[in-house]
Recover the amino acids of this structure.
């Protein structure tokens, strides 16, 4: 167990150090998220009566698209530079590699959300329950990172990886996105409306996260094998 | 017990025709301490042989054994140098070696990294990001990376890629010291003949020739054989 934890810590350190120096993922994701939010702000005519229905969807379309950028890079970079072979040569449990990638993707997506969230609240002029919104974002992002990392590993073996990743990921991700959008909607206060009950949606989100993460750990060994 | 043995080893890449595998029923044994030079024309299966024994590729049939156990189960016994360096451009030379040392659970990885950088004469570049090193310097760090866990078996797939004549000395010293078992592929036959103690020749995935011993004087005959194989 201590060997596994030590290797996981080493892999996470490597991921974060490379991202800190290259600044590829967070910077690109952050700028992309801001652009999408601005486009949505121009495109939608948000009024009090429709803000609760539209705003959570806007936020999650932004987060999901920015997340796919980050997820796609995580294995494509390793494969293009052949460093993935270097990792696979090492005598380690493959799930350590998977979890390290999930943690790194989660960290970079959360950073993108830290950039995007104030812009989202400001542009759409929202009053939010911040702790609830943060909880919904964290759980939704964990689900996205968990399944997305598995599919990023599969897509990295293909030439059309940029196209294949969203095609594989989005259909599987529907339950997580649905539960997250509902939870996010409950965190947005609309004058004259009672906030919807979200206990079941948060429960569903936690259950999906646990299920998808567990399955992904089990399946990752097959996904990463090339030949 | 052989350090490395192939028993009826057949391997093919995904999508490759079943009738034309990359390796075809190769039988081969390498005793502890021997250094096998593996040569053959392009597409002969040399790199595939290395990838199977490195645990990066499955055998379709047959066995790839290291010290009697499947290669994929004894990764800690094997060090691999390829023309790809497996190094991260954003990390320094020392950070790369520490990273791999920690993955292999090497005790005192920082000290091990410093010692290996000294062996490949790159101590002064320890804190330089690998992306800023020359190709030859990167390859020397890659050789240090392969030795970070002190493996008894070394698989060298064109390790002299990018190395100048001066840098070949540390490569030869590192691969011949300590009685390691080595399997080496290279297009530089003179380097290969200096390093190898035996020669195996592959052609179209088949083992077609085996020399029990080898010397630099065997070069012309092997060149003739390779030219003949390349045109058949």
């Amino acid at each position: 167990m201590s060997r596994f934890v030590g290797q996981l810590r080493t892999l996470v350190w490597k991921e974060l150090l490379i991202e800190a120096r290259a600044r590829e993922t967070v910077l690109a994701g952050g700028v992309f998220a801001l652009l999408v939010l601005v486009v949505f702000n121009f495109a939608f005519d948000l009024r009090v009566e429709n803000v609760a229905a539209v705003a959570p969807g806007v936020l999650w379309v932004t987060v999901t698209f920015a997340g796919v950028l980050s997820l796609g890079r995580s294995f494509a970079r390793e494969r293009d530079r052949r460093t993935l072979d270097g990792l696979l040569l090492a005598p380690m449990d493959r799930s350590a590699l998977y979890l390290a990638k999930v943690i790194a993707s989660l960290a970079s997506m959360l950073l993108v959300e830290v950039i995007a969230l104030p812009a989202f609240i400001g542009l759409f002029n929202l009053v939010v329950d911040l702790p609830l919104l943060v909880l919904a974002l964290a759980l939704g992002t964990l689900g996205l990172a968990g399944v997305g990392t598995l599919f990023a590993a599969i897509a990295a073996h293909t030439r059309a990886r940029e196209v294949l990743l969203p095609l594989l990921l989005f259909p599987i991700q529907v339950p997580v996105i649905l539960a997250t959008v509902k939870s996010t909607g409950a965190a947005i206060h609309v004058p004259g409306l009672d906030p919807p009950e979200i206990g079941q949606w948060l429960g569903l989100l936690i259950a999906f996260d646990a299920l998808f993460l567990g399955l992904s750990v089990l399946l990752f060994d097959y996904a990463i094998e090339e030949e | 017990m052989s350090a490395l043995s192939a028993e009826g080893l057949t391997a093919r890449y995904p999508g490759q025709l079943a009738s034309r595998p990359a390796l075809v029923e190769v039988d081969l044994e390498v005793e502890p301490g021997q250094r096998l030079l593996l040569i053959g024309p392009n597409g002969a299966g040399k790199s595939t042989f290395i990838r199977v024994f490195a645990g990066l590729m499955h055998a379709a049939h047959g066995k790839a054994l290291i010290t009697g156990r499947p290669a994929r189960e004894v990764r800690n016994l094997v060090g691999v140098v390829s023309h790809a360096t497996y190094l991260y451009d954003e990390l320094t030379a020392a950070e790369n070696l520490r990273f791999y040392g920690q993955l292999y659970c090497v005790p005192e990885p920082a000290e091990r990294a410093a010692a290996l950088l000294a062996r490949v004469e790159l101590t002064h570049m320890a804190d330089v990001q690998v992306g800023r090193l020359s190709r030859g310097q990167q390859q020397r760090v890659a050789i240090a990376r392969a030795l970070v866990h002190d493996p008894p078996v070394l698989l060298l797939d064109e390790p002299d890629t990018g190395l100048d004549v001066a840098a070949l000395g540390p490569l030869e010293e590192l691969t011949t010291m300590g009685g390691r078992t080595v399997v080496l592929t290279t297009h530089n036959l003179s380097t290969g003949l200096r390093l190898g103690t035996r020669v195996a020749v592959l052609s179209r995935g088949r083992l077609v020739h085996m020399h029990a011993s080898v010397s630099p004087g065997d070069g012309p005959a092997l060149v003739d054989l390779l030219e003949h194989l390349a045109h058949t």
Summary: Chain B is about 30% helix and 25% strand. The mean pLDDT of chain B is 88.
